[in-house]
Amino acid sequence: MVARDSGMLDRGRILGDLALQLGDEELFLGHRDSEWLGLAPEIEEDVAFASMAQDEVRHAAFWYELAETAGMGQADALAFDRPATDRRHAALCARPNGDWAHTVLRHYLYDAWDAVRLMALAEAGEETVAQGARRMLREEHYHHLHMEKWVVDLGRAGGEAGQRLLKAFQALLPDLPHLAAFAVDPQALVDLGILARPLPDLRREFVARISPTLAKAGLPVHPVEAALAAQPEDRARSVAPLADAEELLSTMNGVRSLGAAAW
Amino acid sequence: MPDARMEEFMARIERGDKIEAHDWMPEDYRLLLLRLIHMHAVSEIMGAYPEKEWVPKAPTLRRKMSLAAKVQDEIGHGQLLLRVAEDLAAPLGRHRVDLMDDVITGRVKFHNVFHMEAPTWADAGIIGWLVDGAAIITQTALLDCSYAPYARVLKRICAEESFHMQHGESIILSLAEGEPWQREMLQEALNRWWEAILFFFGPPVVTDAARRMMEYRIRSRTNEELRQKFLTRYVPRIRAVGLEIPDSALRYDDEAGLWRYTEPDWERLSRMVRDNTGPKSQERISLRRRAHQDQAWVREALLRARAAAAV
Amino acid sequence: MAMTQMEKEPAQELNANTSYDVYEIFVQASDLDPHVHVGSLLAPSPEWALQLARENFLRRAQAVSVWAVRRGDVHGTPDDPDWFAREFDRKYRDVSGYADNARRWKRFKAQAMHIDDVIADVRKE
User: Fold this and answer.
1) Which CATH topology does B3-310 take?
2) pTM over cut 0.80
3) Which residues, given as ranges, of chain A have pLDDT below 50?
C-alpha cells in the first residue's frame, strides 16, 4: 500500500486498488445473495431478492472494468482469478449466509455504509468514479428501502423473528469496523480528491443513517458506536480472514478452474 | 350439476369464448386446469434448482448475471402460474401455502427433467437450450387455451422465454466453439439429457385426461405432435454444432412425415416422477421444504408486523 | 344490477388476519400511458405489494408508476354479456360515418382534412 507521507502518491494505483476493493465487496455479497435463489421465504421475495443479487454483481463488474482501464488486468480475471490473499473486501461481505434475519440485516448494514461511501465518492472530483457512484446510488435506493423494511418488520414482529434479528445483530457487530473502512489509506483518497470527506465523517454519517432504522427495529445503536470507536481503521485496513474468501472462491471457480478456455 | 349450464359452457368453449376465474365452470374443467397449472407452476419453481447450482460457479461475470436472471425468471413464472392456480383452488378452500405444501408431501408432481442431476456447466447449457426449448414448445401450444387467465400469463412467459432461448444457445455455442474438452463435456451432457427430453413431452397415448383437455380446448395438440415439432426444430441444430444425438434409431421417415426414435423408458421415468425417486428428487424437495416450511416464521413475522402497525 | 366482486370466496375473508392478501398490480409505462393491469401477487401489506411488484413485474420493462390494489377493492362488471350489448351501429359518431366528405370536398377543389395532418402540422416548427 502507498505510504501516506511518501509524497509520491500514485493516483492510478490507488484508484485501481479502490476499484478492486469495491469490486470484491459487491461481487462477494452478490455471490452470497445469489445462493438464496429458490430459497427465499416467499416466491415473490425470491424474485425481488434475486434482482438485488444481480445488481451487486453488475456493480462489481463496473469496478473491475474500471480497474481494467487502470491497466490492472482483464475484468473477469480480476473478479475470478485473484487468490484470497489478494482480495480487499470487508469481512462481512464474504461471510457464509445465515438465516433470513442475518441476510437482510447484513444487507441493510452493507447498503447503508455503501450509500455513505458512494455519496462521498460521487461528490468528489474523480469523474469516472463519481459518475459510477451516482448511478449506483440511484439503483441502491430500492435495495435500501427493501432491506430497511425487512429489518424494521422483523424487529417489530418480535417473538422468534425479533430474537433471530438480535442474534444476527450480535453476529454482525464485530465486522462493522472492518466494513466501515478502506483497503487503501482513506486519507490518501481524500488528499487525491477521490473521496469528499475523511473516514471519521463517513462513519458518523453511517451511524446517523442507521440509527432511526435500528431504533424502529428495536436494536440498540450504541454497540455500533462503541465497536467503531474501538477500531478506528484510519489506515488501509487489514485483509479479511482468509477462510471465508477461500471457500467462496473455490466455489466461484468451480467451472473456470477446469482449464484455460472461453466460456 | 345442471345440464343446461354444462351445455351453455360447452357452447361457449366451442364458440372460442374465453373462460375467466369468476365464470361458472364444470368441476371437471376446474380440476383438470388446476392439476395442469399447479404442476406447471411447481415445475417452474423446481426447475430453478438444477440451474441454480451453477450460478455460484458461473465462469464469467456476464454468465453469473445472466444465469441468475434466467433462474429468477423461472421463479417469476412460477409466481405468475401459482397465482392462476390459487384462484382456481380458492373455491376449494386451498391457498398458496397448501399448493406449496403439496410439493413436500408429493401430492403435486413436477416435470421429469427437474429430478435429474446437472453435474457439469454443460448440463446448465443443455437445460437452457434443449429443456427450455422443449418447454417453450409445450407452452406455446397452450397460448390459445380456453382459460383466459392461463393464456394471459403464458403470453408473458413466452415473451421472457425468448431471452432464455438466446441465453441457452449462447452457453452451448461457447462450448461448441471452444476447446476439445469443452465439446466433449457438451456431448456428455447431451447424452445424459436426451432420453429425459423426449420423455418430457409425455407418452404418445392420448390419455382420458388429455382427451378431455382437448374437448375443453385447454390444449389442442397431442404429446406426440409436440415431440415431433421439437425434433424437426432441434435435430438439425444439434447436428449443426457437431453433436451426435445418442439414438442410432433416430431418422426422419419421409413417407410417414414423422421422426422415428427409440422410445424413452416410459415406465422407469414415469415412476421417477410419480414416486419422486429420481437422482435429485428428494434433495430438491428438501430445498423447497427449507424455503417454504422452515421459513414459515418469516411470513408469520410480516403478518405480526402488519398487526403491530395497525394498532 | 349486481356487480361481481373479484374475490368471492368467504374462506379468504375469514383468513384476512392470518394470511397474505391478493394485490392486483397496475403499471404505467410512461407519463403518457394509462396504468395497465399486469397481474397479481401475494403480500402482507400495500407497502410490501409495491416493494415486490417492482421486480415481479418490472424486471425488464420501464415504468414511471405502479399501483397495488387489494383485490377485494376491485369491482368488476357482471358476467352478463348483455352488459356490453351494442346492436346498432354508431357510425354517426365515428370517422367512418363521414367517408363521403372527401368526395364532396373534391367538388370544391379542396382536400379532406385528417386529424393526424393537423397534429403533425401544429407540432412542426
Assistant:
1) Ferritin (1.20.1260)
2) yes
3) 1-8
